[in-house]
Amino acid sequence: MDLKQDLALLFELQGYDIKVSDINKQISFASSLIEQKNITLEDKKTKLNEEKKKYMDLVLLKKEKEFLLADSEKTIAKYFMDLNTIKSNDAYKALLLKIEKVKIDKNIIEDELLTFMEKVDEVSAKIKSAESEFKKFEENIRKEIIDIKNSTNKFKGESIALENKREELKLRVNKFVLSHYERLKGGRGGRGIAIVNGESCDCCGMTLRIQLVIQVLKCQELVFCDNCSRILFKSNAL
């Protein structure tokens, strides 16, 4: 077993692992971003639909006032016809009072209807403007999502290519050495091997014992950092 070569291959393997991990993080972030954009779009759509419902409620109220106005006009017309059949002065005067009361109510309804008509026109204009804005917003969001998905597919392609290279490289590493690396990298941010930088571990920054540094330089056995437990490696080991 050429430990120096195995450690060099292992360090190269770790480079692939780090790249794959970074790409997977980008894919995960892209997925979250798409979800957030869909939520934003749905929220905006919900608010628009709520405004449309308010508009429809307003239209119904306007129609109710129109119905009441028409009913008042019918009542007044009927009362005027009834005047021709009344012979008693008291009954005639009483009916005139009823007509005046209905006219007063009719005037109130007309004022209310006018207010509703103005409000309906105002809200209708706002709805049309909001629908136009939403359409543009939706188009932009859909385009952004497509762009993100395209980037994600590209990332996935890169990840697969790296994974294939990683698998090829694994075959060249001693299984005993590889098993230690695979076990260590899981709980250490994907890094199972560390470079000895001077007298320190480049992953955790811990100053190494001189005896450890000497063992690393001899490269006759696997040496582990006392602090982070990663495999230690010196690229110019003897």
Structural overview:
The protein folds into two domains: 155 residues, Helix Hairpins, CATH 1.10.287; 57 residues, no CATH class. It has four helices and three strands; from the N terminus they run H-H-H-E-E-H-E. Strands 2-1-3 form a three-stranded mixed β-sheet. Helix 1 runs antiparallel to helix 2. The chain is rod-shaped. The chain starts with a helix and ends in a 5-residue tail after the last strand.
What labels describe this entry?
single chain; 238 residues; mainly alpha; Helix Hairpins; three-stranded mixed beta sheet; 3 strands; 4% strand; rod-shaped
Write the layout of secondary structure elements.
Layout: H1 3-83, H2 89-170, H3 175-185, E1 193-197, E2 200-201, H4 210-218, E3 231-233
Helix pairs in contact: 1-2
What is the annotated CATH architecture of the largest domain? Answer: Orthogonal Bundle
Query: What proportion of the residues form beta strands (DSSP E)?
Result: under 5%
The coarse overall form would be rod-shaped
Q: Secondary-structure element order, as H and E?
A: HHHEEHE
* Gap from first CA to last CA: 15 Å
Q: What class do helices, strands and sheet pairing give?
A: mainly alpha
Strand count: 3
Give the averaged pLDDT, no decimals: 93
Q: What count of helical segments does DSSP give?
A: 4
Poorly predicted regions are none
**Main beta sheet:** 3 strands, mixed
**CATH class (first level) name of the largest domain:** Mainly Alpha
User: Gyration radius, to the nearest Å?
Assistant: 41 Å
